[in-house]
C-alpha cells in the first residue's frame, strides 16, 4: 500500500472523529465492519459485531462540547493490501466557564480499517484513557456521557 493511500485513511478517520466530536456519531456508525470488535473503557465487555458497537455508541453518545481535537504520534501501518492499523494519541479540548480552552480527555487509540468493496470499514478498535490512574478522570468521563453507558 502506498504511503499516500494510508495517509488518505488517516484523513478519513479524522473526519469521522470530528463528526463525532461535533455532534454527529453516524460517521463512526457507518464505518463499522459487520464483524467489528471494539474495546472501550465505557463498555463492560469486548463488543463484537456492528450492531453491538452501534448500540454502545447510542448509549454513550452525548455532545461533550469538544472545541478542538488533536492527533499525536500517528502511525499508519499497512497490514496487507487491504488492511491498515492506525495508532495515535487523541486529545480533546473543551472551553471552561471562563472561555479558556482546557484538555478534556486524552486517549491512546488503535484502529484497524479493512477495505471491503472499495470502502474502508473499521474491523477493530481499541481505546484506552491515557491518565487512567487519575481518580478525577472517571467521574469527568461519566458526567460527560450518558451515565447508563457505564452500567451496561
Structure summary:
The chain has 152 residues and is α+β, with helices and mostly antiparallel strands. It has helices at 3-21, 26-30, 50-60, 137-144; strands at residues 32-39, 47-48, 68-80, 83-95, 101-116, 119-129.
**Main pleated sheet:** 6 strands, mixed
What is the N-to-C order of secondary-structure elements (H for helix, E for strand)? HHEEHEEEEH
Task: Summarize the amount of helix as a percent range.
Answer: 25-40%
Number of DSSP-assigned strands = 6
Please tell me what the overall shape is.
globular
Mean pLDDT: 85
Count of DSSP H/I helices? 4
Low-confidence stretches: 146-152
Termini distance? 39 Å
Radius of gyration: 15 Å
Strand order of the largest sheet: 2-1-6-5-4-3
Percent of residues in β-strands: 35-45%
**Helix-strand category:** alpha+beta
Structural summary, described in words:
- The chain has 4 helices and 6 strands.
- It is α+β, with helices and mostly antiparallel strands and 152 residues long.
- The termini are far apart.
- It is globular, with a radius of gyration of 15 Å.
- Helices cover 28% and strands 41% of the residues.
- Strands 2-1-6-5-4-3 form a 6-stranded mixed beta sheet.
